[in-house]
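User: Need the bound-state model for NAP:
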Amino acid sequence: MKFATIGHLLNKENLKEFPKPWIQNNLVISPEMNINGTLGHITGLLLTAEEMMTLPREKVRQKILDAACFLQKKFNVDLIQLGGLTTSVSEGGKWVVEQKEYTGFTNHGDSYTAAVTCKAVLKAANLSHKKTVEQTLAIVGAYGVIGEALSKILVSQFDHTVLIGRRAEKLSELEHYLKGDYETTVDLKTQEADIIVTATSHPTGLLASKNLKKNAIVVDVSQPPNMSYDLCHKRPDICRIDGGYVDFPKEHHLPIPGMPPGKLFACIVEVIMQAIENERKNHVGSIDLSHLKKTEQWGEKYRFTLNELTNFGEPIQKVKKA
Ligand SMILES: NC(=O)c1ccc[n+]([C@@H]2O[C@H](COP(=O)([O-])OP(=O)(O)OC[C@H]3O[C@@H](n4cnc5c(N)ncnc54)[C@H](OP(=O)(O)O)[C@@H]3O)[C@@H](O)[C@H]2O)c1
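Assistant: Bound-state model below.
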């Protein structure tokens, strides 16, 4: 199967990072990549994260659909991945699957992202000599596609979890399938958490210094990040970790502007692995935990796994002991 990812710009400056020939038909389109015979493109809309979330939703959705149709017709793409906030504006990708114009397969790539994020949380807790059963976790964006899967997997492993979202009715839906000690809140109540995971569609920095307990760990899955570079400098006691990054085998040449060398987003990796496996299915909306487990097995098989924790692409040598 041939794949293409559809992302977007993080901000206006981001556009300068892409070579000029990559800009065509109102999209960023990489040259064709060949991963052991599986072909694909990394592409993106010329909209910033802020524009993705503030322009009229119908307009943004139409741009995603136009891109999917163009990639299918012009580049014979069979499978698209909805990167960054394209999932958030399309009901977890379900809207794209409902459209008749695009007839290929769609995957949000959030399953492997959630799997890798859980690994990053447990790895960071381990490195900091923290026993999760004695710790408080906060998940910001707890009923989002990634946040919901994280809640299902992680709540039972922690002493207490604070599940944070903007809509009380969506938070209460989580109660149907969670086991363990937790509370739900519409407030950004992260200040007592030892480990905070952010997986929101908020298009800029969200956490402020007052939201962070001394020596807390922040696993920041959100793109754009929810803990800013500046805040990392202001609060050197905090260990911020890039959530959702995966190391890829050295033999692959995957130069994606803006990505730290040897790293790729787990959502992109998921769709590459699906294409190699020739799995002709959609993966949109809520994450099926059996599919999430399958993506972990694919990761082991193709050696696209989380080996090293990083903060804004820089290796984290050790996490401070609380
Ligand atoms: N690192 C990676 O490989 C990777 C891969 C995929 C996605 N991502 C990133 O992960 C994030 C989540 O993706 P997703 O697909 O799970 O998105 P999603 O399904 O749209 O979930 C995002 C959730 O964040 C909530 N939210 C937005 N602003 C908030 C705020 N100020 N406080 C609390 N909650 C807030 C939204 O609530 P409402 O529904 O009420 O608005 C929504 O439930 C995005 O930033 C995306 O770009 C990263």
